[in-house]
Each structure stands twice: as C-alpha cells, then as structure tokens.
Amino acid sequence: MDRALFIAMTGAKHNMLAQANRANNLVNVSTTGFRADFEQARSMAVYYGDGHPTRAYALTESPRADFTPGSMNDTNNPLDVAIQGPGFFSVQAADGTEAYTRAGSFAVDATGMLRTMDGLPVLGAGGPINIPENEKVQIGADGTISIVGRGQGPEAMVEVGQLKLVNPDIQAIEKGDDGLFRQRDGLNAEPAVEVTVRSGMLEGSNVNAIDEFTQILSLSRQYEMQVKLMKTAEENSASSAQLLQMS
Fold first, then answer.
1. Which residue from 70, 87, 77 is spatially nearest to 170, judged by alpha carbons?
2. Is the overall model pTM greater than 0.90, yes or no?
C-alpha cells in the first residue's frame, strides 16, 4: 500500500491531538489561574539503517505552558489570593506530592484546614496550613496568615501560618494530568521571599478564547486535507492494482 497513506494518517492523528489540546484550553477560559498549553507540530524522520530517511511522519507535542499573567479580578474575599508577577502557591496533590498552582481561591474546611477549590491542602513552610476558629482572617503580601480569635478584639490579631510561595525556573517545571505543576527533577522548590500576593483578588485564566477558536478551525482544515490525501492514496493504490491486473 502507498506509504503516503500512512504519512497522511499520522498527520490526521496528530491534528486531532492538537485540536484536543486547544479545546482543553478553550474549556478552561474561565478557570481561575489556568495556564494555557502550547502545541507544536514537527516531522519525525524514519530511518532504516544508514543513509537518508525513507520518509517523515507527523508528530504533535505540547512543549510547555503559556506563563503569561492572567487578569486580576477583585472578589473582596479575604481567602482569595492572587500572585503578583511570577511565582506559585504550593499545595499537596492527591498523590501526596508537593505541587504548584496559580489558583488562589482558598477555603477553610470543617477541621480548620486551608484548602484549594479542588479540595487540596494548601502548604506552608511546615506542611498543610490549619486555621483556628476566628472572627477575622487576613493574608499579607508575603503570604503571612493572621487571625483575630473567636471572641477577641482587633488588637489580638496573631499569625497562624504563612503560605509557601515558590518561584521555580519555568523551564524546569512541567504540568501534570491533574493541571498542577511540578519540578522535573522531582525535588520540592524552595520558598521564594520575592513572591508577593494580593488578598481579596483572583487571577483569571490567560486563555485567549478567540485565538484558541481560530486555531481549532485551522487545525480542522488541516485534518480535512490529511483525510483527502488518504483518500487520494487509496485511489492511487486501487488504480495501480487495476493496471497490474490488465497487464
């Protein structure tokens, strides 16, 4: 069978994967702190022994996320926090590992543990943060969490913890299937004193809906072209077989 059929097949397959990547970005256009994923296509040469490649297949990759800051949205909720500039919040992922996110929509559960909107424990320097019952809670620019205890006045405000804010090299981190970032070397990032936050605000998604929709349409047209090429290869193969039968 014509090798062009297999080449077009790989092109169509990876066009579909690229569309899925863009569609995931579009779905998360309103997700707090979401970082869009890039996708790229390249040719993958196929070698059989020494010499030049016999042909090239298509390959789509998602090399890294887009770390362009999202818009800042005022919520007036003291447990909503947005990072100013580069940096991440530290959370405990479902598998128990330390992971990083830009989503700062936090809440205190029934046991007093500070959690993300996905229910993950928020980490401080000593582990998960626990906030006692209080009349008021506030988070400072450096991530320090202070409260006014139940039945006490404003003068009794005390510190109960501090968010672990990190600023790892973005070239050394990768996004997992759970949407959280981790360092590729498997180590935990050190706290970064230069990272600051703003309380009562949330960072929006950095997805550009118009751009993502346009890219999906473009990839759809490419997919149609690959399918047409597959059909042409099939027709050429049928014509060749007919000529051989006639000879």
1. 87
2. no
More confident residue, 21 or 6: 21
Q: For 16-29, what is the mean pLDDT?
A: 92
Residues 6+ apart with CB under 8 A from 196: 83, 84, 85, 87, 141, 142, 165
Cβ proximity of 165 and 89 under 8 Å: yes
> What residues contact 65, with CB distance under 8 A and at least 6 apart?
35, 36, 37, 38, 175, 181
Report yes or no: 162 and 139 within 8 Å, Cβ to Cβ. Answer: no
Pick from 29, 77, 65: nearest CA to 181:
65
| Contact predicate 199/138, CB 8 Å | yes
Q: What is the pLDDT of residues 204-213, one digit of tens each?
A: 999 999 999 9
Residues 6+ apart with CB under 8 A from 228: none
Read off the pLDDT of residues 149-164 as tens digits, 9 standing for 90 and up: 887 877 788 999 999 9
Cβ atoms of 12 and 243 within 8 Å: the answer is no
Alpha carbon distance 234, 71 (integer Å): 50
Query: Residue 145's closest CA among 133, 157, 153?
Result: 157
Cα 182 from Cα 75, distance rounded (Å): 28
**Closest listed residue to residue 177, CA positions, set 60, 94, 67, 121:** 94
Q: How far apart are CA 23 and CA 80, in angstroms?
A: 28
Are the C-beta atoms of 184 and 81 separated by less than 8 Å?
no
- Ranges of each domain in the chain: 3-66+207-246, 72-203
- Whether the pLDDT of residue 129 is over 70: the answer is yes
